[in-house]
């Protein structure tokens, strides 16, 4: 095995012929013989090259609609033969197998065919067999063969050949081989997913492989001593934080993106609503408000918990304007996420060089399907994403007193926010604004008390005569197992309650609500969030 391997013979077979003319010209500079297939050979001839047809090498015509053309010993022998192995060399000589030093291949467009809505027969025809076989053969024998699978690598290949008298180095061949095996793994993963989910209709197939592509390394993980990166799924995905354009600011960290995602997911619940602002800290909302203007929504959301909002993440459902941008930049904010921002707003944010501004272009559909993943020691938990929603018609009033129209609206608002709060979750809301949020406690009573305490602190900070929990609606992400949590909410001034129901003590809780004069609605659906 040697470091430098001269490229004397190349096999080129491409679906994507981007930059093919550049490649052909570069190989011609070094007198490389080109062997090619069908459409690629025709395109090369248009560029003035003189490739040999693969059928001339194999002695067989391309047949069966092109399904059989490169699957031949004279191709794979030329790829897999170990040049410094005497037995391999003798076999190649005996059978007239010439070595192939470079393979340039990309695969049938299976994924784009699927995404175009093609019928099943067309999808099947776009499963590449010969291409992956050549890629894997060349990559395995990278000690002697260079394998290029991406037009973006043509420049590096030709630069190295120019620098080394038409030869490639072991270092480049190793890198290209690694990329080649990643490509075939991704390709097979995509095909297997299509067969399992689309073709066979399996919800949880016995074998589930999926592929992703690195978008960028991150500043660090949850803590500075942890490294991290952002990956995008191969194939269709909801347009969200991962696809957002970063207009300005420092590099993003794991926490920045995790919190920004939490904020965007929540504000997307209001994508058809009036201007709404969400403020998130450590993946929990600390203030949410819907108002007639984005600026007013910001002010009301901030008033809910201005202490927690410091160093937080802000998301909006409408285009950011300059006045709202000015107000947001009055406090330290890590990230702002929005569908878009006007030029005046961008200019305001530009004065805060470290603030990250992410523009998504649109908001993800909160009702979309999909899966969520969680790594555990030794395994992977996979579930349907929580896209459950409740309409007014699905609510069941279980108390003697019916809610007023305002209480009903506040219940639904609080319920929507509670879906995005870590369990145990309690959310008070009044007039389209969160009044207090209690998150992540080990019991529901403490969440109720913490949310009420936040509301009391907000009243003191803003000079209000009473906390906003007075006359509010309160949402619980899961049922009240005892009446104590409900009573804590009543003590805070809540007049209406929305919760899933389903506890063995429901009757006890309903009786406590009746005694306190509360209206209580059951949803029949819970929203645990861990």
How would you characterize this protein structure?
It contains 19 helices and 23 strands. The protein is an alpha/beta fold. The strands form 6 sheets. The chain has a 6-stranded mixed sheet, sandwiched between helices. A 6-stranded mixed sheet has the order 18-23-22-21-19-20, sandwiched between helices. β21, α18 and β22 form a beta-alpha-beta unit. α1 (20-29) packs parallel to α9 and α4 (73-80) packs parallel to α8 (130-140). The longest helix has 30 residues, at 170-199. The protein is elongated, with a radius of gyration of 31 Å. The protein starts with a strand and ends in an 8-residue tail after the last strand.
Report a brief summary of the structure.
This protein is α/β, with parallel strands linked by helices.
Number of helices: 19
* Rg from Cα: 31 Å
Total DSSP E strands: 23
In helices, the fraction of residues equals 25-40%
| Major beta sheet, strand line-up | 10-15-14-13-11-12
The backbone outline, from C-alpha atoms, is elongated
By helix and strand content, what is the structural category? alpha/beta
Sequence-ordered SSE layout with sheet pairings:
Elements: E1 5-6, E2 9-13, H1 20-29, E3 33-36, H2 38-46, E4 52-53, H3 54-58, H4 73-80, H5 86-94, E5 102-105, H6 110-115, H7 120-125, H8 130-140, E6 146-148, H9 154-163, E7 167-168, H10 170-199, E8 212-217, E9 229-233, E10 245-248, H11 254-268, E11 276-281, E12 284-290, H12 294-304, H13 306-309, E13 312-316, H14 322-328, E14 333-338, H15 343-350, E15 356-359, E16 371-376, E17 379-384, E18 396-397, H16 405-418, E19 426-430, E20 433-438, H17 444-462, E21 473-476, H18 483-491, E22 496-499, H19 506-515, E23 519-522
Parallel strand pairs: 2-3, 2-5, 3-4, 5-6, 13-14, 14-15, 21-22, 22-23
Antiparallel strand pairs: 1-7, 8-9, 10-15, 11-12, 11-13, 16-17, 18-23, 19-20, 19-21
Helix pairs in contact: 1-9, 4-8, 8-10, 12-14, 14-15, 17-18, 18-19
């Amino acid at each position: 095995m040697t470091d430098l391997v001269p490229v004397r013979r190349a096999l080129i077979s491409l679906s994507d012929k981007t930059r093919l003319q550049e490649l052909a010209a570069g190989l011609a500079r070094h007198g490389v013989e080109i062997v090619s297939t069908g459409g690629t050979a025709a395109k090369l001839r248009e560029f003035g090259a003189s490739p040999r047809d693969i059928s001339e090498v194999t002695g067989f015509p391309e047949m069966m609609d092109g399904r059989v053309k490169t699957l031949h010993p004279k191709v794979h022998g030329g790829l897999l033969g170990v040049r410094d192995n005497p037995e391999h060399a003798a076999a190649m000589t005996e059978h007239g197998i010439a070595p192939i030093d470079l393979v340039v291949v990309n695969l049938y467009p299976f994924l784009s065919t699927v995404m175009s809505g093609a019928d099943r027969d067309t999808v099947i025809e776009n499963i590449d067999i010969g291409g992956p076989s050549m890629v894997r053969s060349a990559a395995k024998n990278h000690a002697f063969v260079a394998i290029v699978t991406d037009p973006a690598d043509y420049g590096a290949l030709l630069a190295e050949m120019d620098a080394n008298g038409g030869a490639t180095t072991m270092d480049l061949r190793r890198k290209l081989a690694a990329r080649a095996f990643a490509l075939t793994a991704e390709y097979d993963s995509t095909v297997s997913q299509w067969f399992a989910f689309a073709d066979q209709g399996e919800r949880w197939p016995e074998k589930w492989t999926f592929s992703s592509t690195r978008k960028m390394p991150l500043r660090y993980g949850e803590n500075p001593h942890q490294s991290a990166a952002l990956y995008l799924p191969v194939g269709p995905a909801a347009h969200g934080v991962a696809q957002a354009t970063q207009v300005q600011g420092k590099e993003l960290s794991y926490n920045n993106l995790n919190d920004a995602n939490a904020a965007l997911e929540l504000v997307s619940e209001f994508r058809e609503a009036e201007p709404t602002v969400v403020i998130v800290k450590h993946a929990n909302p600390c203030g949410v408000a819907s108002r007639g203007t984005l600026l007013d929504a910001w002010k009301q959301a901030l008033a809910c918990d201005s202490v927690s909002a410091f160093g937080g993440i802000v998301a909006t459902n409408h285009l950011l304007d300059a006045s709202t941008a000015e107000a947001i930049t009055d406090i330290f904010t890590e990230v702002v996420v929005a569908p878009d921002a006007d030029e005046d707003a961008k200019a305001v944010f530009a004065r805060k060089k470290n603030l990250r501004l992410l523009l998504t272009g649109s908001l993800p559909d909160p009702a979309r399907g999909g899966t969520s993943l969680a790594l555990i020691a030794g395994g992977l938990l996979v579930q349907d994403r929580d896209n459950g929603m409740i309409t007014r018609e699905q609510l069941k009033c279980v108390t003697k007193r019916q809610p007023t129209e305002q209480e009903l609206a506040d219940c639904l608002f609080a319920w929507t926010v509670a879906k995005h709060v870590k369990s145990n979750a309690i959310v008070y809301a009044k007039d389209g604004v969160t009044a207090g949020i209690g998150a992540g406690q080990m019991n529901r009573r403490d969440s109720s008390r913490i949310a009420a305490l936040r509301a009391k602190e907000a009243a003191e900070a803003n000079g209000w005569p009473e906390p906003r929990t007075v006359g509010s609606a309160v949402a619980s992400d899961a049922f009240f197992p005892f009446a104590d949590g409900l009573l804590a909410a009543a003590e805070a001034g809540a007049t209406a309650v929305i919760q899933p129901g389903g506890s063995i003590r429901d009757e006890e809780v309903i009786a406590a609500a009746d005694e306190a004069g509360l209206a209580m609605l059951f949803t029949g659906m819970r929203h645990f969030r861990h």
